[in-house]
């Protein structure tokens, strides 16, 4: 017997969440944070105004029903409000869905490498992770993921576009996968970067969940809408699944300020989507620049690109630091770099050119 309180055994197994490093300010050079897949544009003035207005109410708890935001999302997506569940970022939804659907030792299947919060959420719930390696081109190996499903599997996470490797699954691939998944397994399609997808046969998430009782989408205001600091994510799925997420949610999690910012952003969606379009153009420009420099990345469909660098990953991250761009290294594997300000993107392409020729 130990004399102090002991957390559950699973707690000591939880891997750390390594947040993207902020840049160290330098007198000689503007530095850029390309390590967290954030949107480089600040919230629109109207969004700031709405959020500031809501600050006046902060002596009160927020609207627990998140009414205005549920109504705005319902109108945008054309789905009933009871098909939605809001949370403090879509990362909270990942935790909640493991909590709601998994008993200890139940299995959660996901691709690897993928979003680093998955192992954390699964381990914290004392569930088991079943990680299926991504293909050499960074895409999900959906055949292998389907084959990994057992009677103990409760959830499969499909991250599309996949963070950090970049590619997205097609509707045909997802349909073929869903046809193989037994009905007791919840398939979560993590669409954190969905607004950046430009491909033939993209997934239509709403149509997909509408046709399946076991499919749930997760989305976020953090990326395309540029509200990462406000912490708002949402799930879309059949009412019983969305209801389960709401049941385990923290009361009053999404603040009044965050609700106001999200609603104001939806009211200004065309302007925000123009910014997304500009980032997509920049992504294309970077991919072309990298190819000209002699480096091919897996097809990026989010607001980031992936460099497979193996043992040279930390060296690359260091070289990036030196030119004032902070990237996100995964030691021994590769580096993920967010598409951001034009100048930052230029520096990335130049750096990779030098890296390829060995001059850096
Ligand atoms: N899913 C994926 C694939 C992500 O990359 C992220 C953020 N890095 C999230 C979910 C969570 O985003 P948030 O909690 O800010 O909504």
Automatic annotation (TrEMBL):
Keywords: Aminotransferase, Pyridoxal phosphate, Transferase. It is an enzyme of class 2 (transferase). Residues 33-349 form the Aminotransferase class I/classII large domain. One of its GO terms (biological process) is L-histidine biosynthetic process. Pfam families: Aminotran_1_2. The modification N6-(pyridoxal phosphate)lysine is found at residue 223. CDD domains: AAT_like. Residues 1-37 are annotated as: Disordered. Its cofactor is pyridoxal 5'-phosphate. Its EC number is 2.6.1.57. It catalyses: an aromatic L-alpha-amino acid + 2-oxoglutarate = an aromatic oxo-acid + L-glutamate. InterPro entries: Aminotrans_II_pyridoxalP_BS, Aminotransferase_I/II_large, ArAT, HisP_aminotrans, HistidinolP_aminotransfase, PyrdxlP-dep_Trfase, PyrdxlP-dep_Trfase_major, PyrdxlP-dep_Trfase_small. One of its GO terms (molecular function) is pyridoxal phosphate binding. Aminotransferase that catalyzes the conversion of aromatic amino acids and 2-oxoglutarate into corresponding aromatic oxo acids and L-glutamate. Homodimer. Belongs to the class-II pyridoxal-phosphate-dependent aminotransferase family. This is Aromatic amino acid aminotransferase. It comes from Nocardioides islandensis. The lineage of its organism: Bacteria, Bacillati, Actinomycetota, Actinomycetes, Propionibacteriales.
